[in-house]
Specification:
The protein is an alpha/beta fold. It has a single domain, classed as Creatininase (Rossmann fold, 3-Layer(aba) Sandwich), CATH 3.40.50.10310. 42% of the residues lie in helices and 8% in strands. It has eight helices and four strands. Strands 2-1-3-4 form a four-stranded parallel beta sheet, sandwiched between helices. The longest helix has 26 residues. GO terms for molecular function: creatininase activity. Belongs to the creatininase superfamily. Its EC number is 3.5.2.10. This is Creatinine amidohydrolase.
């Protein structure tokens, strides 16, 4: 049994961890269409692997005391609903849910909360929820999507990858899924060509530009998966886990300071 898993512990054990200064790590993901070739659970499978292995690594090295809560596997995916195969909360509902999850953890005694995200549509609401919790309660709160938290690992992936990183249902995510569970990749349906819409995320960091009906890329994915491989996915996952684990350690070190 992994003792860093919140849901494997009893209420008394969780209370003891909160009193001992553990941080609660809350993983966020999605259930949504990923083109014709990938499972709708792609973001959740990727996110669960990264969050679990990063917490395992950070706690095993003794550099952080972390408890990983159950993953929230439905997110803000309204821009995917038109394609089918998608479950979504509205942004208003999702923001409220994240705040209430945080408030539940605070009532459980936690004073350190970390959100780690695996779906782009969740990011803005996650960051807002983290900010609101830190404003309204005497606690530390951190939030990041894995592609931001992993830092150098993602920079390297962007340099090597011909498609968008992280993108949506393209070469990058397909490689990760081939590494995690190739049974969930319909190899005969992997698209060889794709009309890339490179303006989707804005040309400058922190900006947004979008158009109705085109926020997911052409036909619901951002780039071709023709060159995806399990070997590439394994390398990316290992580097991302290392990067996220290091971010957890850095967050925890900061959170050890007084927050009053």
């Amino acid at each position: 049994m992994d003792t860093f898993l919140f849901h494997h512990l009893t209420r008394e054990e969780i209370t003891a961890c909160a009193r001992a200064g553990y941080a609660a790590v809350v993983p966020l993901a999605a259930t949504e269409q990923h083109g014709k070739h990938l499972s709708v659970y792609t973001d959740s499978l990727i996110g669960e692997h990264i969050s679990t292995e990063a917490v395992r690594k950070a706690t095993a090295e003794g550099k952080a005391k972390l408890l990983l809560t159950p993953q929230l596997s439905i997110g803000c995916s309204s821009h995917h609903l038109a394609f089918g195969g998608t479950l979504s909360f509205s942004s208003e509902t999702y923001l409220r849910m994240l705040k209430e999850i945080g408030e539940s953890l605070i009532k459980d005694g936690f004073r350190k909360i970390i959100f780690i995200n695996a779906h782009g549509g969740n990011a803005n609401m996650m960051n807002q929820a983290a900010q609101d919790l830190a404003v309204q309660h005497p606690v530390w709160v951190a939030s990041a999507s894995y592609w931001n938290a992993a830092g150098d690992a993602m920079t390297s992936a962007r340099e090597e990858n011909r498609g968008m990183v992280a993108g949506h249902a393209g070469r990058f995510e397909t490689s990760l899924m081939l590494a995690l569970d190739e049974r969930l990749v319909r190899k005969d349906l992997i698209p060889e060509e794709h009309t890339e819409l490179d303006w989707i995320f804005g040309s400058r960091a922190g900006t947004f530009i979008g158009c109705h009906g085109k926020l997911t890329g052409a036909d619901g994915y951002t780039d071709s998966s023709e060159a995806a491989s399990a070997e590439q996915g394994q390398a990316y996952l290992a580097a991302i886990v290392d990067g996220v684990a290091q971010w957890f350690v850095e967050c925890y070190a900061t959170m050890e300071k007084e927050c009053t």
